[in-house]
Design brief:
Length: 458
């Protein structure tokens, strides 16, 4: 019998586009089905053939709901995939929000491109529509943590908590006598909201993320840092604009702001949550208490803190305000959505602050702001950057290299080989060296299209 193998179809040399094709005994399983995000060269990969015929895939397994792990699913299903998509209940519920919003945003971006003529394509088309996204939801099949289930003929799986966002997990696949674990995105051990990632059990092979494979997060207090940013912006009579991932970081921010407000550590200025997706995810958050550690009272405070902006008219009204405020809007890397309108309004204002609270992928507007550009291209026009730009790494939802190493050491996993993915080249290689030097593991960094054979372990 031919040994199982993995083909790396995404998340190589980048933190987006997670897709791994696992083949065993003529059965094909796709682990994660993510969108490529960031520079145009990466985004164009979403329009290319995925490297396999969707109709021949037997099953899809999703580690969590973030679009760089799930956002290609509507395109896959539209192209002919008709099988089940296995995920946790939390992931399923979030996907009902995220995928529909993604389809809507892609339609909206195509509409704006056609109206203003800033696309080279005539007409500009969406990668998929809201209707395409809705059509794939029936294929979502929820599974429970820690319970083994059959993915496809000859392949079983189980999932443990990854502590990254609601429903996120690490999937272990049993392929005959060989096992392989996919970490997905791994959370932090002392996150103020999410439960810590669970230690991994035994597995012959491991595919692990490396988003912060070359960095440590600051040990400073996130509450103190956030209070300082809010207060200094208020004293300048400016507006605090926060590009935030609608699932995870938005709720984290609301919780911290609610705590600061309750302790009277920040002024009582309006807080706007301007993202229908983030609004829905915030309400959903409190229904999945199995994944986080917030009390009922903390959830209530978090949900009552912001003024919710559902419609585009409400969103536009925020930008017409003249008093200090806090605007939390998607997307987290400023790649699209309503945040772009707020950046156009407030980037030229030296009184205001743009607060970056998550990982900023190479080539994204968030990374450009972080790197200190003096102009940012938005909707085909360059906008002057005169607002203060601040990054808070203490709010990251990804484990840093020390937290990853300690998490792996705490489990019983002792893999024959490790594949380091979901990181930019420097970060991935740095983690590879750490795994070799500190744990004595054979680790490699695959390239796009690489195929790894999983030899049976005695």
């Amino acid at each position: 019998m031919t040994a199982p193998r993995i083909t790396f179809l995404g998340a190589t040399d980048t933190v987006t586009g997670s897709r791994y094709l696992v083949e065993h005994a003529n059965v094909r399983v796709l682990v994660d089905c993510g969108l490529f995000q960031g520079p145009k060269k990466l985004r164009q990969c979403n329009w290319e053939a995925p490297g396999f015929k969707p109709s021949v895939i037997d099953a899809v397994v999703l580690t969590h709901a973030h679009l760089d792990h799930s956002g290609y699913l509507p395109r896959l299903c539209k192209a002919g995939y008709r099988g089940k998509v296995y995920c946790t209940e939390g992931t399923r519920d979030l996907l009902k929000i995220l995928l529909l919003d993604s389809g809507h945003l892609q339609e909206e971006e195509a509409r704006l491109a056609n109206r203003h003529g800033y696309s080279r394509h005539n007409p500009a088309l969406p990668l998929y529509t809201k209707a395409d996204a809705e059509a794939c939801l029936d294929q979502l099949t929820p599974v429970a943590f820690h319970e083994s289930f059959t993915v496809a003929k000859g392949i079983t799986a189980s999932i443990t908590r990854a502590g990254h966002i609601i429903g996120s997990g690490c999937f272990r696949l049993q392929l005959g006598t060989t096992s392989v674990t996919f970490s997905g995105d791994v959370g932090r051990p002392n996150d103020p909201v999410m439960k810590a990632p669970e230690p991994l059990g035994a597995s012959d092979y491991l595919v692990v993320e490396s988003t912060y494979g070359d960095r440590r997060h600051p040990q400073s207090s996130a509450l103190d840092e956030l209070a300082a940013v809010v207060t200094s912006t208020f004293e300048r009579r400016g507006t605090l604009v926060v590009p935030a991932f609608a699932v995870g970081r938005a709720q984290h921010l609301l919780h911290l702001l609610a705590e600061l407000r309750a302790k009277r550590r920040i002024p009582e200025i309006p807080v706007f949550l301007d993202s229908p997706m983030a609004i829905n995810a915030t309400h959903l958050f409190c229904h999945h208490k199995i994944d986080h550690g917030l009390s009922d009272a903390a959830c209530t405070l978090m949900c009552k803190l912001p003024e919710y902006s559902q419609t585009s008219d409400q969103s536009k009204a925020i930008d017409r305000g003249k008093d200090p405020s806090i605007i939390i809007s998607a997307s987290g890397m400023a790649t699209g959505g309503r945040i772009l309108h707020h950046l156009r309004r407030f980037l030229p204002d030296p009184r205001s602050t743009v607060l970056l609270v998550g990982y900023q992928g190479s080539g994204t507007r968030g990374r450009l702001l972080l790197d200190g550009v003096d102009e940012l291209k938005i909707h085909g026009e360059y906008v002057k950057v005169q607002a203060k730009v601040v990054q808070m790494e203490a709010l990251s939802a990804h484990a840093d290299y020390r937290e990853l190493i300690d998490w792996l050491r705490a489990g019983t996993i002792a893999p024959k080989r490790v594949f380091v993915t979901h990181g930019e080249p420097q970060a991935a290689d740095a983690l590879r060296l750490r795994l070799r030097d500190e744990l004595g593991w054979d680790a490699t960094v695959p390239s796009l299209g690489d195929v790894a054979t999983l030899e049976s372990v005695p």
